[in-house]
């Protein structure tokens, strides 16, 4: 974290329709455009989660309640696969590690997993740095994730 900058505090709530509308309009630049959300699919997800009471997508909010990103948590046995996306105007500004850590802390409380998995695109050096610098984990290529940059993160 850059010197003199206060840590952000995050809270999590199941994906709300207003957050799906906002995130569906986010646009990332260059190769990061592969992370652009599909608005109709995100809206449908928000509505179905409410109807079925099965939450996979979560809105990450700052201390003022503003949307700063989305997380997905998919549990399989004692492992939770994590997906995340930070609001484009916040990326590359040193918030990544604390954002990632906040999501893992939330998932630990909610799911009590033994392991986390995270897939990161091979070109995404920012995300690879955040996930491998994480001080509290052992990071190793995941045997379960056959995609090029899967990581198995032990709790």
Quick structural gist:
This protein is of the alpha+beta class and 155 residues long. It is 30% helix and 26% strand.
Any key phrases for this structure?
single chain; 155 residues; alpha+beta; Aminopeptidase; 4 helices
- Indicate the CATH architecture: 3-Layer(aba) Sandwich
Q: Number of DSSP strands?
A: 7
Counted up, domains total 1
Beta-strand fraction estimate: 25-35%
User: In CATH, what is the class?
Assistant: Alpha Beta
Give an overview in words.
The chain has helices spanning 17-23, 39-52, 96-111, 125-133, and strands spanning 11-14, 57-61, 67-76, 79-86, 115-119, 139-141, 150-154. The protein is of the alpha+beta class and 155 residues long. It has one domain (11-154): Aminopeptidase (3-Layer(aba) Sandwich). The protein has a seven-stranded mixed beta sheet, sandwiched between helices.
Helix and strand topology:
Blueprint (H helix, E strand, L loop, with lengths): L10 E4 L2 H7 L15 H14 L4 E5 L5 E10 L2 E8 L9 H16 L3 E5 L5 H9 L5 E3 L8 E5 L1
């Amino acid at each position: 974290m850059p010197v003199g900058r206060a840590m952000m505090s995050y809270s999590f709530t199941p994906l709300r329709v207003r957050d799906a509308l906002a995130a569906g309009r986010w646009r990332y630049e260059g190769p990061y455009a592969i992370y652009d959300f599909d608005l109709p699919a995100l809206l449908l997800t928000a509505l179905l989660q409410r109807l079925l009471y099965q939450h996979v997508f979560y809105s990450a909010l700052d201390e003022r309640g503003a949307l700063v990103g989305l997380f997905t948590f998919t549990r399989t046995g004692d492992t939770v696969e994590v997906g995340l996306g930070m609001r484009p105007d916040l990326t590359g500004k040193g918030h990544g590690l604390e954002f990632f850590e906040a999501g893992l802390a939330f998932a630990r409380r909610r799911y009590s997993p033994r392991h986390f998995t995270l897939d990161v695109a091979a070109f995404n050096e920012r995300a690879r740095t955040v996930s491998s610098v994480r001080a509290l984990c052992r990071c190793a290529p995941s045997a379960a994730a056959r995609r090029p940059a899967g990581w198995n993160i032990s709790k």
